[in-house]
Amino acid sequence: MKRGDYLFTSESVSEGHPDKVCDRVSDAVVDLYLGAEAEARVAVETLVTTNQIVLAGEVRGPDSITHDDLERVARDAVRDIGYEQDGFHWRDAKVNVYVHAQSSDIAQGVDSRDNKDEGAGDQGIMFGYACRETDVLMPAPIHLSHAILQAMAKARHAGEQPGFGPDAKSQVTLQYVDGKPVKATSVVVSTQHGADLSQEDVRELVRPYVVASLPDGWMCDDAEFYVNPTGKFVIGGPDGDAGVTGRKIIVDTYGGAAPHGGGAFSGKDPTKVDRSAAYASRYLAKNVVAAGLADRCVIQLAYAIGVSRPLSLYVDTYGTGNVDEDKLAATLLELVDLSPRGIRQHLDLSRPIYARTAAYGHFGREPEADGGFSWERLDLIDELTAALG
Question: With contact defined as beta carbons under 8 Å apart, do 91 and 78 qualify?
């Protein structure tokens, strides 16, 4: 039975959250390698804590890239985020690099050779989702949670709000009536701040960014607007809590409004279907909804390591579709080559475009001139319409 009236909550975390620092560093390493060699292989994880940055993983790429280069991009990433604090400083943190050559056992299953096409870099299932709740076809709670932190970060980087620190979190609860969001019932924002600011000071600094990020009239009652509800938040970032790459996969995707296959994105080159097939799934689902074929759509892809073709493509339009789902699935398979190589070529993923994805979500962003966020393009609409009417 369709449930029309309910509350739903999603959260976001800022670029300065410890886990997001790790995502940013890992993706900076991906960009370093892809910028030097489009066919490079990267699987690098990052851990951060008080004035410590640890990189570990495996790569295959130009020998000209050294551990010193990896240390440099890590420091640059932390500096760009804005960490110049006693407990975590881009210049003073110790950087340990434990990165080695890619396993030959993995390479033999993934590489193309003779008559064998390039295989998936691992087994796994990936999901993509789109809906009509926002103009970018994303669920509203996660979209608004991101918008609040993006607005605050923009002000911090511009020097307009020097009281804000890099580490922040947001959480938005929306009321749904007849399946559509109508207003916020609560908003939570926790942000690192200067030691001279009181909790009430911070609350009033945060308020205009929340109000501006929500649709007109959607602001919650003041009693349900929570800012730093535990009180002081001066010590933050990796000095306050350790971070690891890939721990914010729901923040990265749909805020819990759609399934997630479990694989993280950051630190992985696009031959890894954890990343590229999740992008392809979103691309397909978004074009289905934008073409008017459904109001909601989730798509699942499944792969086996070393096998190029997807094992399955599943489509669910939650009863909102106006075409047969099996026919839709077959059409999508005809329109787009969903092998790892096919996805990479169709979406032009072998570029250094990944550091920018590390915070504020991989989806619902604007496609960029250099190929960034190419999976958000709406260039399948005409083909879908021609094939399905």
Answer: no
- Residue 173's pLDDT is 98
Question: Over the stretch 109-166, which tens digit does the pLDDT of each residue have?
Answer: 565 555 445 767 678 899 999 999 999 999 999 999 999 999 999 999 999 999 999 9
Phi/psi at 356 (5° precision): -70, -15
Which residues are tagged catalytic?
Answer: 17, 19-20, 45, 58, 169, 233, 241-242, 247-248, 268, 272, 274
Q: Say if residues 340 and 276 touch (Cβ distance below 8 Å).
A: yes
Our measurement of the distance from residue 333's CA atom to the centroid of its chain's CA atoms, rounded to an integer in Å, reads: 25
Q: Give the span between the Cα atoms of 310 and 11, in whole angstroms.
A: 31
Q: Beta strand 52-60 with 94-101: parallel, antiparallel or unpaired?
A: parallel
**pLDDT value at residue 116:** 46
Partnered with residue 53 across adjacent β-strands are: 48, 95
- Rounded to two decimals, what is the model's pTM? 0.94
pLDDT tens, position by position, 228-276: 998 899 999 999 999 999 999 999 999 999 999 989 999 999 999 999 9
For the segment 145-154, what is each residue's pLDDT rounded down to a tens digit? 999 999 999 9
Token digits for 118?
A: 């390039």
